[in-house]
Design a protein that fits this description.
345 residues; alpha/beta; Rossmann fold; UDP-galactose 4-epimerase, domain 1; seven-stranded parallel sheet; four-stranded mixed sheet; 15 strands; 40% helix; globular; NAD(P)-bd_dom_sf; GDP-mannose 4,6-dehydratase activity
């Protein structure tokens, strides 16, 4: 029976990965930060099945202790300040966690158990101002946010420890992956939550940023399987995990509304663009300039050929299914909110 240590276990990816590893018979350990109130996040249903260790990515001693406690055979570093917009507000904090935190974890492995295998959660945001379309493992990086820059450091320090110390260290360059467990601050979940609230009559409109941004969207459950596959290979390497399909934010909005029977008609352009419910003429989508990034990433489109060929990885949930799952989940959550409000008055 293998031991696995997951940083960021309470997040979207951490919870799906924990489920996968438990199914495969692993002893699963997870790192979480001490807070004033206990918050299990997405692993509330797993809290009795995983072993939780208090530690912090900015505290090397705590990570060394976590490695000693877990004696991990596989370490999955998913902890991050992962909201791109926030990285402009907290660039130093983002760097502490997303860049130096990776080094802290790698050092803990090198000191305690150098034979452990390490997965680093890299990101398509490292490509930023893309140098070629689609992006693959050999595409030059050009990050356009403090988040992307910090993640690029994490990516390269992982490669450096692999080459310097012989650590089995892999980076998964994951393109946008969403799910029902995605945080409400992310644009995809913001959209599906708003669609549910608009459908059920508790919200009139949703305000969004750049409607022309193009992203390669997949489901987190498929992507964590790729993480595990990387650490099962004979040699460590880096892989792009993507769908090789790109869609605009506008298309995501249209798809989400279609899943609740609402057709959107667009009027205007740029910051004046609005989305209207064809059936009743009500404005349900507006553009707000405050949601634009200081430096935009216009298009991300990944080529997963290497992962499909070497790892045998293939996604199972397509774009429409992804959006449908998210919308259905938010409909259920909002319906429950309404019931509770009616009961409590």
């Amino acid at each position: 029976m293998k031991n696995a240590l997951i940083t960021g276990i309470t997040g979207q990816d951490g919870s799906y990965l924990a489920e996968l590893l438990l199914e495969k018979g692993y002893n699963v350990y997870g790192i979480w930060r001490r807070k004033a109130t206990v918050d299990y996040g997405n692993i509330a249903h797993l809290k009795d099945k995983v072993n939780l260790i208090y530690a912090d990515m900015t505290d090397p001693a705590s990570l060394i202790a976590a490695m000693k406690i877990s004696q991990a055979d596989e370490v999955y570093n998913l902890a991050a300040q992962s909201f791109v917009a926030t990285s402009w507000d907290t660039p130093l904090g983002t760097a502490d966690i997303d860049a130096l935190g990776v080094t802290n974890m790698l050092e803990a492995i090198r000191i305690v158990k150098p034979e452990a295998r390490f997965y680093q959660a890299s990101t398509s945001e490292m490509f930023g101002l893309v140098q070629e379309i689609p992006q693959k493992e050999t595409t030059p990086f050009y990050p356009r946010s403090p988040y992307g820059v910090a993640k690029l450091y994490g990516h390269w320090i992982t490669k450096n420890y692999r080459e310097s110390y012989g650590i089995f260290a892999c980076s998964g360059i994951l393109f946008n992956h969403e799910s029902e467990r995605r945080g409400i601050e992310f644009v995809t979940r913001k959209i599906t939550n708003a669609v549910a609230r608009i459908k059920l009559g508790v919200q009139d409109c949703v305000e969004l940023g750049n409607m022309d941004s193009k992203r390669d969207w997949g489901h987190s459950k498929d992507y964590v399987r790729a993480m595990w596959l990387m650490l099962q290979q004979d040699k460590p390497d880096d892989y792009v995990i993507a769908t090789n399909e790109t869609r605009t934010v506008r298309e995501f909005v249209e798809t989400a509304f279609k899943h609740v029977g609402i057709d959107i008609e667009w009027q205007g352009s740029g910051v004046d663009e609005i989305g209207i419910n064809k059936e009743n003429g009500k404005t349900v989508v507006k553009v707000n300039k405050k949601f634009f990034r200081p430096a935009e990433v216009d298009i991300l489109l990944g080529d997963p050929t290497k992962a499909e060929t070497v790892l045998g990885w293939k996604r199972e949930i397509d774009f429409s299914q992804l959006v449908e799952r998210m919308v259905k989940n938010d409909l259920a959550l909002v319906e429950n909110e309404i019931k509770i409000k009616n009961i409590t008055g």
